[in-house]
Amino acid sequence: MKRQIPLLITFLSGITLVIQYYVLPLNWIGKTFAGWFQAITAFAYVLAAISLFAVNGKKIRDRAPGWLYNIVLLVSLTATLYMGLICDFIGLGYPGYQPIDEGTAFDWMFQYIYNPLSATMFSLTAFFIASASFRAFKARSIESTLLLSTAFIVMIFRVPLGEYLWLKVMPDGWSISWFIDTFIMGGFNNAGQRAIQISSAIGLISVSLKIILGVERSYLGGE
Amino acid sequence: MGKPVLYVTGLADVDDIQTLAALSILSHVAKKTAEYDTSILATTSRAVTFSAAQEVVRDAFTIAGRPDSFSVESVRYISDDQFGYAAGVDGMMVREQPAANFYMGKFYAESLIFAETGYATGAIQIAGTAQANQLPFFVAACDYTLIGEELFAASAYLSGDPLQVGSLRGQDVGKAIVMVVLVLASFDATLQVLFDWSFTSYLGALLS
Amino acid sequence: MLDKLANLDRRIIYLIVLISVIVPLLNPMGLKIEPSESVAASFQTYEDLPEGALVLMSIDYGPSTAVELEPMALAACDQLLRHNQKVAFMALYPEGQALTNRLIGRLKELYPDKKYGIDYVNLGYKAGNEAVPLKMGLDFRGQFPTDTRDKPLSEIPMLRSVTQLKQFALVATYSAGFPGALEHIRITASEYGMPLVVGTTAVQTPQYFPYYDSGQVKGLIGGLRGAAEYEILTGFKGAAVGGMEAQSIAHFTIAGLIILSNILTFLQFLRKEEQ
Questions:
Q1: Do B83 and C64 lie within an 8 Å CB cutoff?
Q2: Predicted model pTM
Q3: What ipTM does this complex have?
């Protein structure tokens, strides 16, 4: 029964959601299910938060290597929760009751702590792409040579400096941007993207059907 | 030997099919790690995925005959935020020094951050995603990459179940049908452009 | 020496990239940027709007991608307000609402004569991913009963008579991922037939080219390059054009590193052959 009931729920929910998509008067069912899912997610956050406190608390208690960072994590988590939920939501001395309004402490944390941290992490990608390219982009075979040359052309000639150098060498009217847009982006790239998207969609349909019909059960755990 | 296996389930929630595929593969990976008495660290970025992953790993250890080896700390919720998740997982990689990293599911810009940090720690890396724009990063930085539909096929292949493996054949047949339709439709559209006549316009005229 | 160079420490590579980005920011070169077809199409779509037209702009990016997307959103808002068009901001992305506040703050500085509620309004973030464009197409007022200041739409001058999505002349989305452009393409443009302009990050641009090619999307602005092209077309002095110079040098640096790596690999191969 432990596995039969979840499989039955999956089947009924899946079939209902498929039918409601095609039958307009039943569309409200999909929206209701989406609302239920959000409610379940909210409860699941409680479990996730408990896990966070448990894992980090244990490291602090055991003085595991780097335990100070676990304190930083828990303090940041609690402070953000306090600012957003207690401080600004109840509206103690801050404009408005929406935590995200301009002028609230929560908004200040978002603009001056979260924004720079997020942008910094994203900027790591620039450095990592350089090291990954240095290591991986080697012309070892015909395919890797093609990959390398395409990457080279797009990287060099999609930036203003590359276009400027191209026009210094080539006659007027020989636009490299047009070549890249039409043949590389519009041709090879489009074809490759469409192929991956179409085959992924077919795989997606297959897995979805298997899950709805109970053929695929590994995501539930057990055999 | 003695190093853990890191499993990253991606950024999407459990309502995304890529996450479900990732959880299916997690089941097989967790079973293998239990059999070889290796610890597993599964990280999630969504609360519901965290709950589901916990059950998957617990059951996998039970089936492998090692229920006592399961630790609740082997499945961790890190953060909903994309780069908070990336920072947390990177920190785990550098501290725990896993021997193998699995990146399965839906990834965005953090894919390269994971893969490069994992490479720096010397781990074997296997990735799988249907996000076409993140595949180049995984292909460049990981040892093996499951591309697009291979992520969805992996669980069926690993299970060995004839019904599931048969569904892979069905997928291939579906792809073949799509390919034939694409070629015929492209040929038809070309006829329309070149000769101002096509089978579809002829059929349309017949039916109207 | 050869092996040492071939296995160059990552930190040296990072330092080289850092220098290649900082130097052009401090010493701009004034390079010319040629707009591409998809960006020109986006610009023209905005230009073709009648005066006083209503535009729904979906701000679907977070702080990490604001560097690429905010300049194009700002340039587009500048173009709209200059032509006395009206902008209603919304967000499918949770962090979009806070970034809309930032965008509006900038617009207040650029256009102090334009008023909130008359020329622009912030409808805020709505949870629900795909369900949001789906519902707003069926019942716009029902999906957005108030703005972020809890004022009913019937009391906001620019939206007083707006009850349906079709009353907007254009929908634009500046999107970093999920939810965002794909939801608007699938529902707002394909299902409800609304003209849609998409601005997205450089990494995601190839993914949306098929939609631009097929005409489902009227214009596509990709990455910082697209934002710089848009700023050139609109004449708006934003951050993207300066950023492109740094990107130019960084690209050349990475290309140089790739060439170096291939030369070193080849030399190692020759040395192995000799041995």
A1: yes
A2: 0.85
A3: 0.84
